[in-house]
Write a structure and sequence with these properties.
Blueprint: H1 3-17, H2 22-27, H3 41-44, H4 49-64, H5 73-86, E1 94-96, H6 98-109, E2 111-114, E3 117-121, E4 127-132, H7 137-141, E5 148-152, E6 155-156, H8 162-169, E7 176-182, E8 188-194, E9 196-199, E10 203-207, E11 212-217, H9 224-236, E12 242-246, H10 255-262, E13 270-276, E14 281-285, E15 297-301, H11 308-318, E16 322-326, E17 334-340, E18 346-355, E19 371-372, H12 377-381, H13 386-399
Parallel strand pairs: 11-12, 12-15, 15-16, 16-19
Antiparallel strand pairs: 1-18, 2-9, 3-4, 4-5, 5-6, 5-7, 7-8, 10-11, 13-14, 13-18, 17-18
Helix pairs in contact: 1-5, 9-10, 10-11
């Protein structure tokens, strides 16, 4: 093993298990040496006992493992880090390769090469389509909401982590990708799509019947606050009687963005509570200047409403601004930081839990809607949105004299 690689591995191990901050982790790197059993006795005595087992195993593999090809030391390093992260039991603390980290950054920027479908991961690792970007390859080829993506280019998604599955869907603009889908009625469908430049439409806004304004927020990315406020102004210029906010399929994004967006609908009050590992609590209050704080409001949610989108939904309900309608939300009640490591791989680490203004913790549970309406397979096949219909009925009832 080269000295460079050994020290790279030391940095990864220390950052993950040996410090309370990333800066401190790199600062104490000199206290660990990879070939543990070959260390001078005076240095070896300073090492945590747990590290001895790791380096003994690594050295045994290097010395004795039968192989016809050289060991892939980077793959071994990444495997060790992933195993360490998995032992924490937190699915939101994750290690990403440089390529997966770039994909995560692309998501937040809202532009990448792909097929244009919002997905959620199932327990088996497959991807379920929840929403299609209008005009994108997925919609043009006939992918439907509710379709289960089983294979990509002949590669089964079963058991894959979500970043790896999504990585198979993305690629160079103009290249072909083949999907094997299972429809809600169990029909198997194969489709060929050509990847295109996907620009995620952050906001969709339009007027519905009876003076109800419709505003869908697809994600809480960096430009979401600006785009949502601009769309709100356009809708309010048409003097709507009520407002329907659609957060279905919204996977979340930045916490600050969630606070800013919730503040457009809440005149005053708390948006969320944060608690760190020491029990310290921080209140995030609504910012002044919201432009939709008085209209009757309903919020649509589903199983793909997650993270920052759940913050918005919980804040609206706990501040008595509107009801939640739809299905149980995803249940991501934690806050992560994302740091690039020395080789541009990334580590996303959970640093806090967040709670709704009333103190409700949602991690692993989600928010239960005030009015539960589930989409059936028949609804999906008929492209019938019974959740939106129920929200319209509710809002019209609020407007009745």
């Amino acid at each position: 093993m080269s000295n460079w690689h050994k020290w790279g591995l030391v940095a990864l191990v220390i950052v993950l298990v040996g410090s309370t901050t990333f800066a401190a982790g790199f600062g104490v790197g000199c206290y660990v040496w990879p070939a543990y059993r070959h260390l001078p006795p005076a240095v070896a005595e300073d090492q945590p006992e747990e590290f001895a087992v790791f380096w003994e195993a690594w050295q045994l593999i290097e010395d004795r493992f039968y192989r016809e090809e050289p060991l892939d030391q980077k793959a071994m390093t990444y495997g060790a880090v992933r195993g360490m992260v998995a032992s924490l039991g937190d699915r939101h603390t994750v290690f990403l390769t440089p390529e997966e980290g770039d994909m995560f950054d692309e998501d937040l920027k809202g532009e990448f090469g792909g097929i244009g479908v919002t997905v959620v991961s199932t327990d088996e690792g497959y991807l379920r389509a929840t929403r299609l970007i209008p005009g994108a390859p997925a919609e043009k080829a006939g992918v439907r909401p509710g379709d289960l993506i089983l294979e990509v280019d002949g590669n089964s998604l079963r058991g894959l982590a979500m970043p790896a599955s999504i990585g198979l869907l993305r690629g160079t603009i103009g290249t072909e990708v083949r999907l094997l889908l299972r429809r809600p009625d169990d029909e198997l469908v194969e489709l060929a799509l050509t990847r295109a430049l996907i620009e995620i439409p952050v906001v969709e806004a339009r007027m519905l019947d009876d003076g109800i304004a419709y505003l869908a927020l697809w994600e809480c990315s960096g430009r979401a606050t600006r785009d949502l406020r601009a769309s709100l102004k356009q809708l309010l210029a048409e003097e709507p009687r009520a407002l329907l906010l659609d957060l279905r399929g919204n996977p979340g994004g930045y916490l600050d963005t969630a606070v800013q967006i919730a503040s457009e609908f809440i005149n005053d009050g708390v948006v969320l509570l944060e608690r760190d590992r020491h029990g310290s609590e921080t209140k995030h209050k609504a910012q002044s200047g919201g432009i939709a704080t008085d209209l009757p409001l309903a919020v649509l949610v589903d199983g793909a409403t997650a993270s920052a989108a759940e913050i918005i939904a919980g804040a609206i309900r706990d501040n008595d601004r509107g009801l939640l309608i739809g299905e149980q939300t995803f249940g991501k009640g934690s806050v992560q930081i994302s740091e690039r490591l020395s080789d541009r791989s990334s580590l996303r680490v959970t640093i806090m839990r967040w709670y709704t203004p009333s103190g409700q913790g949602i991690n692993g549970e989600g928010l239960t809607p005030d009015i539960v309406i589930e989409l059936s397979e028949e609804d999906l096949l008929a492209e019938r949105d019974v959740q939106l219909e129920e929200a319209m009925t509710y809002l019209l009832g609020q407007l009745s004299p």
